[in-house]
Amino acid sequence: MVTVLEEVAPQRASGGTAKFSIIDGRIPIMLGGIGHRTFANKERIAEIIATESKKLKARYPNSPFVILSPLAEGADRLIAKVVVEHLDAELIAVLPMPRNEYEKDFASEESRAEFAALIGKATAVKVAPTPENDISWKEPGDERNALYARAGAIIADHAQILFAIWDSRPAKGTGGTADQVAWFDRGYAPSAYSLYGAQISPLDPPEPGLRIAIDPISLDVEEIVNPQAANRTKPDARRSNILSILKRTDRYNKDVLGHRSVIEGEGKDPAGECKSGLAASVFNAADRLSSHFASIARFNDAVIYGLAIIAIISFNFINKFPIAVSIYLVVTVVMLALFYWVRFRSVDNRFLEYRALAEPLRVFRFWRQTGVSRSVWLSYLARHDGVVHWLRHATRTVEFCQDSVSPPQKTTEHAIEAVKRDWVQDQLTWFSEKRLPEHERRWKRFRLFWRIVIGASFALSIALFLMTFLPARPFAPLFSFFGYTPEAGATLWQELVKPDDNGDLWQAVLAFLAASGLAARGYSQRRGDADMAKQYASQRRIFETANVMLREVGTPGTEWTAEQILERLGDEALQEQAEFVWLRHSRPFEMPQ
Question: Where is pLDDT greater, at 22 or 128?
Fold first, then answer.
């Protein structure tokens, strides 16, 4: 187990309580709520939102929810109220400008009081960036409208499910409901308004989300995933895997709930339990679940290959002992059951997934500690499909929530030294003294065992072949030692192998050697200890180089600062992890033949 993320004290919204601690290691599903300021049928629409919320809870029963809302008058507030009530969702208020300025746009004191009540329940308040040295946005006009677009862009960039009360008409101004829906449907907002600027590549955008479209006039409700791709209105539009991503999130959360004892460990964790910071608690859960599923996968493999040895040996005696047939049948059925259990539960895939989830959260912790405000998820696992997009979504969600309650702070020299110790040197020690030697020893041990037993089986086969024509008389002293005299003209085969009892013994020995060798070979390849050793060796080299560069910071001729080195280290570590999980994930489980 590696160093656990340290606890981060969340900044509380006015009057609210930072409740991310109750999520306790799970990854929330991010919701968004947008719509028109004025519309009819409010009570009926509230009932529709409540019904859809209940459906989401039934579909993702293990997951907590977070709702992003600008809390503008009308649809925004209605959605936030109903979702918080029926999903017990955390509320992050996404304001287009500082609160005192935002409230000037509300129509009445009653509206401002309603806003104050809602923001008082918010777990966090995220304010869209305002222009520096420019106060023109404080007056009505394009500059002020652009701030509303920025708030909408934050929701479009981070929500995985969007409640949209929209009549399908074009937006009246920049960043209106129609624009926000279009941004959400394609998976990202324009760089002019996005928090990430131009960092999101249009060639590798996040997965478009699921939109729950509510028509305020007809009251029709529809679940939509990237309509441009579904209706082929845009040839290059990508089909979204958001439903698969949400399903994986709920499965992870189910594992967290079902393995509390594993995550919490026995007694107090020596590095300190970190439950008030979302990123810290998710890291702790993912790290421990990864180790847990790795142990299960390795144990299951050992059992299956051990049963394979028994099956092969019993098969060799089905002509002599009727019970051998029953043994063979029972063993193969148990092997098959274990095989399907491993495949159905994706045990070793989950080991890889949760290991790959913990890594960006480790980088996130140390980047923020050293003042690096870059988004980790943008550096992680780019241009890979399937499970990798889930990892990006999960990292983005946790990172956004954590930054909302605890924004990045300026670094200090003390923080740099702490990161050198707790990240670079800790990981270097972990790779060098534990993980790499462990996998190298395991691989070499099974390789040596495989070579010995396969070599012994070949040697025994050659010996049995020679016995077919070697006479027994020259070996008479050996026979006499056991009180036995070989017959004249008999071969060693006739004396040592042909008798039924002896033949069965030789057959059993040959079967055991061959089965053991093949099982050892299959087991070592199955778990990929050689691949793991290579990956850890590569990681060790990265941290060794970073450690050397950090020692040289400030000396003549050095071009890199400590912050730059640690930022690049995070990139390299994530790329290495990405390559490994992509190559190893979903490798088919090979049943012993």
Answer: 128
375/196 Cα distance (integer angstroms): 8
Parent domain of 44: 26-240
Helix (H, G, I), strand (E, B) or coil at 59: helix
Q: Which amino acid is at 418?
A: A
Q: Could you tell me the end-to-end alpha-carbon distance of the chain, in angstroms, rounded to an integer?
A: 35
Which amino acid, residue 413? E
| 103 pLDDT higher than 70 | yes
The overall average pLDDT reported for the chain is: 80
Is residue 175 in a domain? yes
Is the pLDDT at 162 greater than 50, yes or no?
A: yes
Q: What amino acid occupies position 213?
A: A
DSSP letters of 456-516? Answer: HHHHHHHHHHHHTTSBSGGGHHHHHHTT--PPTT-BHIIIIISSHHHHHHHHHHHHHHHHH
Mean pLDDT across 475-485: 69
- Only one residue has tokens 């004396």, namely 495
Q: Is residue 236 part of a domain?
A: yes
Collapsed DSSP state (helix, strand, coil) of residue 577: helix
Q: What is the pLDDT of residue 267?
A: 42
Q: What amino acid is encoded at 538 in this protein?
A: S
Distance, CA of 191 to CA of 196 (rounded, Å): 7
* C-beta neighbour count of 207 within 10 angstroms: 23
This prediction's pTM: 0.81
User: Which helix (H) or strand (E) covers residue 235, if one does?
Assistant: none
42 falls within a domain: yes
Q: What is the DSSP string of 299-330?
A: HHHHHHHHHHHHHHHHHTTTTT-THHHHHHHH
Contact 88, 128 (CB under 8 A): no
User: Over 50: is that where the pLDDT of 5 sits?
Assistant: no
Q: How many CB atoms lie within 10 A of CB 199?
A: 13
Give the Å distances, CA to CA, from 166 to 55, 145, 189, 306, 320: 20, 19, 18, 61, 78
Q: Which two tokens stand for residue 92?
A: 């992050």
Domain count along the chain: 1
- The count of other CB atoms within 10 Å of the CB of residue 592 is 21
Report the DSSP beta bridge partners of residue 165: 35, 214
Q: Which amino acid is at 351?
A: F
Q: Are strands 210-214 and 221-225 parallel, antiparallel or unpaired?
A: antiparallel
What is the rounded distance in angstroms from the CA atom of residue 473 to the CA atom of residue 261? 68
CATH of the domain at 140: 3.40.50.450
- For residue 31, is it within any domain? yes
